[in-house]
Specification:
The protein contains 41 helices and 15 strands. The strands form 3 sheets. Strands 8-9-11-10-14-15-13-12 form an 8-stranded antiparallel β-sheet, with helices on both faces.
Length: 920
């Protein structure tokens, strides 16, 4: 039997699998003299080569037409059909011929799952159902066993089940997963009437009358899946299971087929479920997602479903994307991905919500009596607990209603009815300049932000339906925009909505314990309109060649007045956007114990109002980056910077001078060491220079006082203690000072897998080094108590010279696979104005294990004294800031010295990168 060749494949079917020729070769190898073993071996040899050639042909055709997903997935399914059919033919005619078997010996092979739909990615599983009319016979069992052995030898991932029609009905009734698989059965080979009989009985005895239960099961299944995968569009999405992924599309197919007895989504247009333009959107999104999945399989060489960072780069290249407009090809690709995923999520929600409403039962009478629905304004009514339109025509007669409905949804707490959402999406063209400049439209939008509780829900729905980007056209370019880095967990638009959600939560008193400063600022009162609009627009300039803060500030000059802000409010919004990273940078990249840091920040901020607004905006911005980004360390830094700056603004900048802070620190130490002998106490307060007193908290001063008491020149004293306020472990060292001490300490910590997040080192007047390092483990957490003894032991061995840090670190240095796609340009700057007594060297580069050690070793070998290091990590990017002097205690003013240090540090960075590549 020869099987028909489909026409619309990515390459001609004959180039994929020459069915007559391969069939003839198989039969020739299975002549009368061949043994079962030799026939199987020949089949594997012939089909293995044919399958490889076929897959190569499909991949080559796909490479030429990288967006032609449907012909590609059909080609893989057809290739698999050919293999299955030929193996079945070999098994039933040569390996286990029927001979005189009774007529009841029937066997049918059905494809199920994605294979059953005729959709296969390069490395999809081959899911098969072996169907028999009654209990499986010895002959059928032998055929199935031989087929499976051949499939396994061909390295196919086969999922299989052997059942009777009765089994299928029984198991399908018990398990919705099996029932769904039964829904997608497709005859491949064998006794075809048996397949048709199964289809008929499934429809009449299992599917019919159970539509409501099936819809509810699929809705619950989707909710559970999204709960596991995440309800947001995360930057490393799962193409198959994630929100807006292929599984959402498949859910639509399953329900369509179950209810309407067709797997053609075009039918939904004819039935009025989808509009024509929604169907077009659906098909484009499906083809894009399938193309992405196929390229993902081909690039990785296996069945991978998650678009990790390294795979994103390869898939973007395979799909023909290129760098342009200041953005990388991968960023353009991922923005298209998220736009399609959003469209899928939107259509899925509309479709499933409509089905849910159609198939759900009314709530019990008692529940309806005691839980009264909210009162809605004229023009609306409630349908299945959703806000619906009484008269769609009347609703659309006033285009401002396209904003009012979101306000009504927030006011009542109701979700929008799918029909209302579709009507809005279909009429976005009505949102024009007249509406954007309309006073009432401004009022509605501002009230959405300020008056009805947390605006997150309405903003996200407005964004998904396209209203937000249409009403504020400047917002549209950042919709679904991905930032290709490991720091941001969300797209830019989702990050913005997360920030606003955080602000609302602070306002409503939900985060008082976690964010006491920001909560107090909002409780005491700020211009809420300015704050919400500044947050809405703070990243609006991203994705261009220019600095996004400066560009966003310029864009706000157009948007803020259009939203009805006064001139002073517009000026404040513009300032906040232009400097929205200032406080974060000062807190995380500068030593806030240095009075100049706070003084410079206070001069930039100028007023208490700006300080308060910027503090809240900064907190929301950091928390909106992603789960786990905000921690006690950042909180402590920001609180300290806020309180010191507020004091400077209220009491004058002179309150920050070194003498005042030193006197206060010494007084605090005397109080903490109340039981000490006065002579020892005077010796301790006299042995340190001014930077020591301003650079550490009194708790560290107490620790060092104990470590230094009666210390000898050959001792190394160490105190390791959790610093819960900073989510870190504090390691304090006291030992005789010598050149390169900072580097040796950093090397010792690196060897035990410690990430240094902050460090201070001081030399006492009597020649001892006191160094405090705050460290975290690889997960960004303090070290567990059980790991501290090994930490102490390794540090001791390194400082005694028993372990050489450089060799040990470089031997195990390598990047994780998903991190190799990132390339961070190195930037090194020298600042002689940011500190009164130090040169500040800021190194912005690609993070890696041992980087701090390499940099500090290089500086030490160049006779540079390192007073402190501040480390700020942003995913794969790190900014290491060093406060340094030369060997004579002077700043590095000379350009030639700066160039020499710059060259040496860059060489150390590149050497480390090369070692990491060599170790991969």
């Amino acid at each position: 039997m020869l099987y028909p060749m489909p026409e619309d494949l990515v390459v001609p079917a004959s180039e994929i699998f020459d069915l007559p020729t391969i069939r003839a070769a198989l039969l020739a190898a299975a002549d009368d003299d061949a043994t079962e073993t030799s026939m199987r071996a020949a089949a594997v040899r012939i089909l293995s080569q044919a399958g490889k050639d076929g897959r190569d042909a499909i991949a080559a055709g796909f490479a030429k037409r990288p967006h032609a997903a449907f012909p590609t997935t059909e080609a893989y399914a057809w290739l698999t059909d050919c293999v299955v059919r030929l193996v079945f033919e070999l098994a039933t005619t040569r390996l286990h011929p029927k001979g005189g078997k009774p007529a009841g010996e029937k066997l049918t092979v059905l494809a199920v799952g994605g294979y059953g739909r005729g959709e296969m990615a390069p490395f999809s599983d081959v899911d098969l159902l072996f169907l028999t009319p009654n209990k499986i016979t010895a002959w059928a069992e032998s055929v199935i066993e031989s087929m499976l052995y051949i499939f396994w030898d061909l390295k196919l991932k086969v999922g299989h089940a052997s059942r009777t029609i009765k089994d299928c009905l029984r198991l399908g009734a018990e398990d919705y997963t099996i029932r769904t698989a039964m829904l997608e059965t497709r005859f491949v080979t064998g006794h075809e009437p048996l397949a048709r009989k199964l289809e008929s009985r499934l429809q009449n005895e299992l599917f019919k009358g159970s539509e409501r239960a099936f819809v509810n099961a699929k809705l619950a299944e989707r909710a559970q899946r999204l709960k596991k995968q995440g309800l947001r569009y995360v930057v490393e999405p799962n193409v198959k299971e994630g929100k807006g992924g292929l599984r959402d599309l498949q859910s639509l197919y399953w329900i369509t087929k179950y209810i309407h007895h067709t797997d053609d989504v075009q039918t939904l247009v004819n039935l009025g479920v989808f509009r024509r333009e929604e169907y077009t959107t659906f098909m484009r999104a499906e083809e894009f997602l399938w193309a992405t999945r196929c390229h993902l399989h081909l690039c990785s060489g296996r069945a991978v479903e998650q678009l990790t960072f390294d795979m994103q780069v390869e898939v973007a290249e395979a799909m023909g994307y290129s760098d342009r407009g200041g953005r990388r090809a991968v960023e353009w690709f991922m923005q298209d991905y998220f736009r399609h995923a959003t469209a899928v999520g939107d259509l899925t929600r509309i479709f499933l919500t409509a089905l849910e409403a159609e198939h759900q039962k009314d709530a019990p009478l008692l529940q309806r009596m005691f839980k009264r629905p909210p009162k809605v304004r004229e023009g609306y009514h409630i349908v299945h607990n959703r806000l619906a339109l009484t008269d769609p025509t009347a609703f659309m007669s006033d285009k401002l209603n396209m904003l009012r409905i979101f306000e009504e949804g927030l006011r009542t707490g109701l979700l929008l009815h799918p029909d209302a959402m579709r009507l809005i999406k279909a009429n976005l063209h009505l949102i024009d300049d007249d509406m954007r400049n309309n006073k009432e439209a401004r009022r509605i939008f501002i009230d959405l932000l300020l008056k009805h509780g947390n605006p997150e829900r309405s903003l996200r729905r407005m964004n998904e339906l396209g209203v937000l980007g249409t009403f504020i056209p400047e917002f549209e370019p950042i919709v679904a925009m991905m930032q290709f880095n490991m720091y941001h967990a969300y797209t830019v638009d989702e990050h913005t909505i997360q920030c606003i959600a955080t602000l609302s939560s602070i306002e409503h008193g939900d985060l008082v314990e976690e964010l006491p400063v920001a909560s107090t600022i909002l409780r005491e009162g700020v211009n809420r309109k300015v704050l919400y609009i500044a947050l809405m627009l703070h990243d609006i300039g991203k994705g261009r060649d220019e600095d996004h803060s400066a560009l966003g500030a310029l864009i706000s000059r157009k948007v803020a007045p259009r939203l009805g802000l006064t001139k002073p409010e517009c000026a404040t919004v513009e300032w906040l956007i232009r400097y929205h990273l200032l406080m974060s940078d000062m807190a995380q990249k500068r030593d806030i114990a240095d009075p100049r840091t706070v003084r410079d920040f206070a001069k930039a901020v100028q007023t208490r109002e700006r300080l308060d607004l910027l503090t809240v905006l900064t907190v929301c911005d950091i928390r909106g980056v992603g789960p786990g980004t905000w921690n006690n360390w950042k909180a402590t830094l920001l609180r300290a910077l806020y309180r010191q700056t507020r004091r400077a603004l209220e009491d004058g900048l002179e309150a920050l001078n070194r003498e005042n802070r030193g006197a206060e620190a010494k007084k605090a130490l005397r109080e903490a060491l109340d039981g000490w002998d006065q002579k020892d106490l005077r010796a301790e307060t006299a042995r340190h220079y001014d930077p020591y007193w301003q650079g550490l908290h009194v708790t560290a001063h107490v620790v060092f006082a104990g470590l230094l008491k009666n210390i000898s020149n050959d001792e190394i004293r160490i105190d390791i203690h959790p610093d819960d306020d900073r989510d870190a472990t504090r390691v304090c060292f006291a030992l005789a000072d010598h050149p390169g001490i900072f580097s040796r300490l950093a090397g010792a910590l690196s060897l035990v897998g410690a990430n240094v997040v902050d460090a201070r080192t001081f030399t006492s007047k009597d020649g001892y080094a006191t160094a405090a390092f705050w460290i975290q483990d690889m997960d960004g957490s303090p070290f567990e108590q059980s790991r501290l003894p090994r930490l102490r032991d390794m540090i001791g061995k390194t400082l005694k010279g028993e372990v050489k840090p450089r060799e040990a670190i470089h031997a195990k240095l390598k990047f994780k696979k998903r991190e190799r796609a990132f390339s961070v340009p190195t930037s090194i700057t020298f600042d002689n104005e940011g500190s009164e007594i130090y040169t500040i060297i800021e190194v912005d580069t690609r993070d890696r294990p041992g980087l701090l050690y390499d940099l500090t070793r290089t500086l030490s070998e160049s006779n540079v004294y390192i007073a402190s290091a501040v480390i700020a990590t942003y995913g794969e990017q790190v900014v290491d800031t060093f406060y340094v002097k030369d060997m004579f205690g002077l700043k590095f003013y000379t350009p030639s010295k700066q160039k020499t240090l710059d060259r040496r540090m860059r060489a150390a960075i590149e050497e480390g990168k090369q070692r990491a590549r060599d170790n991969e």
